[in-house]
Amino acid sequence: MRPAKTGVLGVALGLALAAGALMAPARAAAPGAAKSSGTLEQVRQRGILRCGVNTGLPGFGAPDSQGEWTGLDVDICRAVAAAVLGDARKVQFIPLSGRQRFSSLLSGDIDLLSRNTTWTLSRDVQGMDFAPPVYYDGQAFMVRRSFNARSVRELNGATICVQQGTTTELNLADYFQSTGMSYKPLAIEDLGEVVAAFFSGRCDAYTTDASALAATRAAQTVSADDYLILPELISKEPLAPAVRKGDEQWSDIVRWTVFALIEAEERGVTKANVRDNLGSAAPGVQRLLGVRTGAGLGKSLGLDDDWAVRIVSQVGNYGEVFERNVGRNSVLRLDRGLNALWNQGGLMYAMPIR
């Protein structure tokens, strides 16, 4: 879920006061290295990456029956920990509500926000830097099949459940105003209460990101076949990890961790074969895995040259992360769609690692 822009502007007021405490003096960097502002050092000294995640969204961020955190966003946290600390298990997962997530990041309570968060202009200029999107999504609507709606255009006059204080609420109002349709919003701040209201029949439809609708439906004890996610999307929702502005090196590390996951899939480097690929003759694979003579790409990030080897060997490539968490064989059963590689009809595209 996405808080309204006014919430972001509010937390931004405290940014100037917090910045001095968050950013330690830069350490000496190798020639050509990105400027450091402290987060990498803090994470290494602590020995744990503090990662803000969802309070419980299957497929993206939720504890399983043994209390183990799983999900696509969770695996992004683990990939960063593997790159920086050498161990994908060295993550403290901090569940955050939609309202808590930005203030927790800007205050320094977390090092990384990986919580199905939409990259928008207002957020980008108010204290946060975004890594590349890890899931391209859009806002959709779910209804009971018995409601007999097969299109959003059939929701005129419907009561619609939405989480209060989110841009989901804003998108909903914008859409109905632009189409000239009417609706009755049932806006509730607590996400669990929103979901309960929909499944108890207090509203005709529930709106949020399409992936979150699929996750919510999968988590219910009701029959998934009784609920339909309408096909139209009314917004663009590029979901991406975020870090605090002002720490260029940390931003680079998170950004290139995501690119490494995508590049590994494109190069055919998997969790199972990454060690075998250390002997690859392909220059692109050699650069990715840090064995290309003279490349020194890891050092330019403040890491060692086998940072990407650790990521892929411990977490897998992007395709593996997608499939086990949200793909066709997961509980969400989602197609790759826009999240396929760029050369397979999707938008997943890694900047060149060279």
UniProtKB/TrEMBL annotation:
Keywords: Signal, Transport. InterPro entries: Bact_solute-bind_prot3, SBP_3_CS, Solute-binding_3/MltF_N. Residues 48-277 form the Solute-binding protein family 3/N-terminal domain. Pfam families: SBP_bac_3 (PF00497). Residues 1-28 form the signal peptide. The keyword Cytoplasm does not apply. It comes from the Bacteria. One of its GO terms (biological process) is amino acid transport. The keyword Cytoplasm does not apply. CDD domains: PBP2_BztA. Belongs to the bacterial solute-binding protein 3 family. This is Amino acid ABC transporter substrate-binding protein. It comes from Nitrospirillum viridazoti CBAmc.
